[in-house]
Amino acid sequence: xxxxxSAEDVLFAFSVEPRHDRETLERYLNSYPQLxxxxxxxxxxxxxxxxxxxxxxxxxxxxxxxxxxxQYSAVAPQGVPSASVGDLFNQFKGRTFVALAEALLIPRSxxxxxxxxxxxxxxxxxxxxxxxxxxxxxxIEAAQEYLTLPPVTSAAVNFKADQTPSAQPQIxxxxxxxQSSLTEEQIVALQKDLE
Length: 195
Prior knowledge:
Elements: H1 7-15, H2 22-31, H3 36-51, H4 59-74, H5 83-86, H6 95-104, H7 108-115, H8 126-136, H9 140-147, H10 155-160, H11 173-179, H12 184-194
Helix pairs in contact: 3-7, 8-9
């Protein structure tokens, strides 16, 4: 039987732990084995976030940045991505983000890397971009345009950090899959499906 804590409560508790080391992860995995995939994905996302380094962006600055971006995108010159392309993932939060990852047959950590544009765009198979566009309810062109924008730092990292984060280098799609929680068989099946 499941503990009285909801999955969201457990994941939140894990995310605010002072350390996200192997011991902490194992403690949560032992206590909540039914959430193993979720805990592993969150651990991977937190590891990626930690590797980005600290930032000096304050929470109240976020509203200022969003307002400036909206003003800029309203008058963006020809050739500059529209706000809809830049905001492609805005509709995918929480459960809808999980559903998108499941529709794409990938772990959430892979989707996080795509959301933050940490993948070399030319390494992403056309079949995956087509599947991504369909699942996200957008065009292939809009998905490609989004994935070619510069990498971003997650808002959580910006909020927690004390100094400006340096951009994490992009990796190939193949390397991203190899680092994910997918088994070798799942990777081969996914690659075959994308051909």
